[in-house]
Amino acid sequence: MFEITIGIDPNIAQVGPFLLTWHGLFTALAILAALPIAHHELRRRGLELPNFDTFAFFTVIGGIIGARLFYVLDHPELFADDPLRVLAVQEGGLAIYGAVFGGFVTVFLLSRIYGQPFGVLADSIIPGLLLAQAIGRIGCVINGDAWGGPCTCLACSGARAAVPGGGGLGYCPFAFTYTHPDAIIPHDLLGVPTHPYPVYDIAVNLLVLAVVWRLRGRSLPSGALFALAAVLYAVGRFFISFVRQERVWFWGLQQAQVVAIVAGLAALIALIWLLRRPSPVTTPAA
Fold first, then answer.
1. What CA–CA distance (Å, rounded) separates 194 from 176?
2. Which of 33, 70, 215, 270 would you call most buried, defined as having the most Cβ atoms within 10 angstroms of its Cβ?
């Protein structure tokens, strides 16, 4: 096991009231990477959106609002002393499931408003969304807002002794050790080797993307590709969350795991229904 020490300042620069952070930078890069993929997939499926910019803008806004809402609900103690900090999304603190939920609801509403097929929209968005999530997690690696629990391997034992209550969460293939005082990771984990949780999440996103990319040319009911991706990601997210150190909701499960179960079951039911109902399938161009 080897450690990667991350002592980078989460903030890149500040000009007046504008604060540029690594998390904000990679979030912007993630959005820029996802939009052309979504646009290409829509055209490949024969859907020309004359108002693509409107869809893209409001979907991004909806995703950011959902991501921030989920994070604040899971970490209310971080905002108790400074409620206005809730608005400082560029600092980090965006929950991926919140982003998916917010974007999902936004796309559904826009599809109803503009009379567009929701299933085709969802299938076209999912490849770019998965890539965006992977890119966005790079910002989490730097600022520590998606931290893993402390490792229990022998090489980590000295640092782990400083963690209140001791303990740990198993062997790490490698560990992140955050040292910058402004990192979002809890201060009792500063200097402690922790599971590289964002890397695990990047791997899950890229693996699901590989499956989606391979199946995107197949004849599937509209919406089935999105539902399948949701099921696969939920399974992966559930298991990698065991190495996190988050607030337990119930049954020994964390928020992300509870959401993964609910979202995964809902997506599985939707996938089975889509595959079994007699309806025309979409056959995208190669």
1. 5
2. 70
Distance from C-alpha of 79 to C-alpha of 84, rounded to nearest angstrom: 8
Tokens of 110: 């826009």
* Closest to 99 (Cα-Cα) out of 73, 77, 70, 72: 70
Per DSSP, which regions of 129-212 are E strands? 175-178
Band of pLDDT at residue 254, cut at 50, 70 and 90: confident
* Alpha helices, H only, 183-277: 197-215, 224-240, 255-276
Q: Would you give the DSSP letter of residue 189?
A: G
Nearest CA to 124 out of 50, 223, 234 is that of 223
pLDDT at 163 over 60: no
Residues in the chain: 286
Grouping H, G, I as helix, E, B as strand and the rest as coil, residue 48 is coil
Q: What integer pLDDT is reported at residue 128 of this predicted model?
A: 93
3-state helix, strand, coil in the chain (%, to 5): 60, 10, 30
| 189-203: average pLDDT | 93
> Per DSSP, what are the bridge partners of residue 49?
none
What is the CA angle 252-256-257, rounded to 5? 45
> Distance (Å, rounded) from C-alpha 193 to C-alpha 167?
12
**pTM for this one?**
0.83
- Angle in degrees, CA 267, 136, 64, rounded to 5: 65
Q: What's the one-letter identity of residue 176?
A: F
pLDDT band, very low/low/confident/very high, at 157 (cuts 50, 70, 90): very low
User: How far is it between the farthest Cα atoms of the chain?
Assistant: 61
Residues in binding site: 137
